[in-house]
Amino acid sequence: MSWEPQPDGLSQIITLLKQSQSTDNMVQRAVQLKLEELNQYPDFNNYLIYVLTKLTSEDEPTRSLSGLILKNNIRIHGTELQPAIIEYIKQECLMALGDPSPLIRATAGILITTIANKGGLQNWPELLPTLCDMLDSQDYSVCEGAFGALQKICEDSADVLDSSALNRPLNIMIPKFLQFFRHSSPKIRSNAIACINQFIINRTQALMVHIDTFIENLFHLSSDDDREVRKNVCRGLVMLLDVRMDRLMPHMNSIIEYMLIRTQDSDETSLEACEFWLTLAEQSICKEVLTPHLPRLVPVLVRGMKYSDIDIIILKGDVEEDEMIPDREEDIKPRFHKSRTHTQKPSVGGGASGADGAARAMEGNDDDEDIDDPYDEMDDDSNLSDWNLRKCSAAALDVLANVFKDDFLPILLPILKETLFHEEWVIKESGILALGAIAEGCMNGMVPHLPELIPYLIVCLSDKKALVRSITCWTLSRYAHWVVSQPHDQYLKPLMKELLKRILDANKRVQEAACSAFATLEEEACTELVPYLGFILDTLVFAFRKYQHKNLLILYDAIGTLADSVGHHLNKPEYISMLMPPLIEKWNNLKDEDKDLFPLLECLSSVATALHSGFLPYSEPVYRRCISLIQQTLNQDLASTTSPGQFEQPDKDFMIVALDLLSGLAEGLDCYIESLVSSSNIMQLLYQCMQDSMPEVRQSSFALLGDLTKACFQHVHPHIADFLPILGHNLNPEYISVCNNATWAIGEISIKLMEDTKPYIPMVLAPLIEIINNTNTPKTLLENTAITIGRLGLVCPVEVAPSLQQFVRQWCSSLRNIRDNEEKDSAFRGMCQMITVNPVGVVPDFIFFCDAAASWMTPKKDLHEMLQKILHGFKMQVGEENWARFVEQFPPQLSERLAVMYSI
């Protein structure tokens, strides 16, 4: 297709491109409107590609900008463009890959990738062969331009390139790329490695065939003069460590030596190399291969933890007092609300040793628990790149401390002595960070040193450098568990006093670090903090008046955690009169669409649960507003579904947080919530929320249903026929937390419905049995499922007992680990009822029942009698001789415990 521009049109577009480089917002907006208007004309895109590829009289930034505008047009309107125009753009782009200007080549490469992504590589069959041919061009610009485009395609379409739909082009491309590892141009060597690196993690077959050649070539380039090449070599080796350790093992010593050198580079290669230690720590061979190198590696990591001069400038490390400077809104990270999940508390030392180890099988991490990365929080600043050498070195030290445990300390302690007491604050700061990083892995070995170190750190909390004060808060929080276990006067009191001062620090970073550290201390200390509550609340309430926007959100968290930790001890008139007025004032000042409501509602939910009836005077306006937030979100959701163009979709977090706060109110106020429920349409709203398409909405609505069932069942009862089928339908472990809360709510409802649960048993029992027998079910869900099955057996033993054999073993293994409470009590009564109806069902797994019975610390008298009766009944049934043989299988502790508890 030959196409020529009109001179008027061309000059109009060039004027626009010049104007769009203006810094004036008004001009920018006018240009935006004009560009949208020009999109009505099909050949507008021809002009854009013409400016990029043909108009060499224009300056490069203007030409490149033309290409970027075209890229956006293709991304947004690509499918509507005429095929002839797309063909013209494709031809021109391929030609422009050899442009003398690197900027124009790169822009053409971006355009090619965009077209390939939008239309699919299979619709441009000649693209890859053409690019591969261009690699062989004698013209350097053509080769480099083609490689730039190929690198972007490999990055965006790694999976597609390995598919049979395209005839597996990688079989040709990978050997081709390998030829360029020895090219004279560093840019091309770097591109060649970057292309192949895209295929390591997926173990792409076409690469695995050439893996030895690839590794050999990587080694050859390891001492390359070019920084980008070395960076890509490091990146490749780190990924290979995960994927093809077998191939690296023979060379592991020299790889470690190499990475040690690279980790000390003064550019970003050091970060790529530092990732190696994080990855190596996850491999089983880590201890064996790294031990000889530790004395050299540890000092390198600690040095990497020191703030660079640039970091200090970005973090305004020389600004000590900034509390009066208002926060910039863009510095405030979005917070995500974690919906309520009903969980069991683990038993305290009660469980006897496991029958057959069955009970220990499920003690891993709960699938749906988020583990926060402590290094994300460490220097929380949106200006510092999220992940840098300092954080990576600290994380590496942490994971290695977890691998080597106390063997780490002979190397680390001398370094700590040197750094912790250094007169240069940057070095001292890195030592304090290192001390925090090893807290988890080396805790046992550190204990003898803590009586000296903790008081020193408490002194560092008032260091004159804000960055030292803030990291000290973090490090002390990592040792909070030990501090709480010592006599209060020695460490807890002085630490609390200094941390509370830091919460009121004149530096915002220190305020934030102190608030987070204090929240950790609260979680560790729980009710140990009760004697100091007045003192703590004084500080937290004062901080309300002092804090800028960002830290206010963290303060809510510290107050919520305090309420969770001390519970009903907060319910004293003097504490309520301190805490509630500032919270309610914030609550009244925030508009319904302000996202700051999230952390405030979360905080109020914890406070309402803790205060019980003490929250009554504040409950009505809080309750009404939650109902209103749910109503508004549902209305907006309906509007946006029925007429999508006119109404935006709502942010459902408002509804989720409101449901969770209502749960907190129901749990805290208990039967006092009845009058609020009776005068509102909460049941209708709940019915809608329970059927929402978003799992988190359903999760929170099931939690609320369970809490309302406990607090005022008379209002839930009339709706049971509507609610229970929805709960049954959500017993789907694909959504762990939704399933968990639905399971718990079914158990709570059954306890209230009693024998009227009967018609619903077929609907819920089969999915619950399936969940309890699934090996992938996480611990929390297993426990709640076992409790609910037990409760169903309590209210409808005749209906549930016939299935006993299908779940009794898993049931016993799940419930032996939770502490004595009402839920465990009702579940065990149900089990006793079911065994009475169907004694044969428990016989093959009776050892598991014995173990579960032994897990009680102090069962209620009548439950104790029921359990004893079943145990003695079984013994009588099988006779002395068989019983003796049976008991021989027991671990000794189990026999002792049964003898003591049940005289058997």
Automatic annotation (TrEMBL):
Residues 364-374 have a biased composition (Acidic residues). Residues 334-374 are annotated as: Disordered. One of its GO terms (molecular function) is small GTPase binding. This is Importin N-terminal domain-containing protein. InterPro entries: ARM-like, ARM-type_fold, IMB1_TNPO1-like_TPR, Importin-beta_N, Importin_beta, TPR_IPO4/5. The keyword Protein transport applies. It comes from Anopheles merus (Mosquito). It comes from the Eukaryota. Keywords: Cytoplasm, Nucleus, Protein transport, Repeat, Transport. Coiled coil: none annotated. Its main location: cytoplasm. One of its GO terms (biological process) is protein import into nucleus. GO terms for cellular component: cytoplasm. PANTHER family: IMPORTIN BETA. Residues 31-99 form the Importin N-terminal domain. The keyword Iron-sulfur does not apply. SMART domains: IBN_N. It is found in: Cytoplasm; Nucleus.
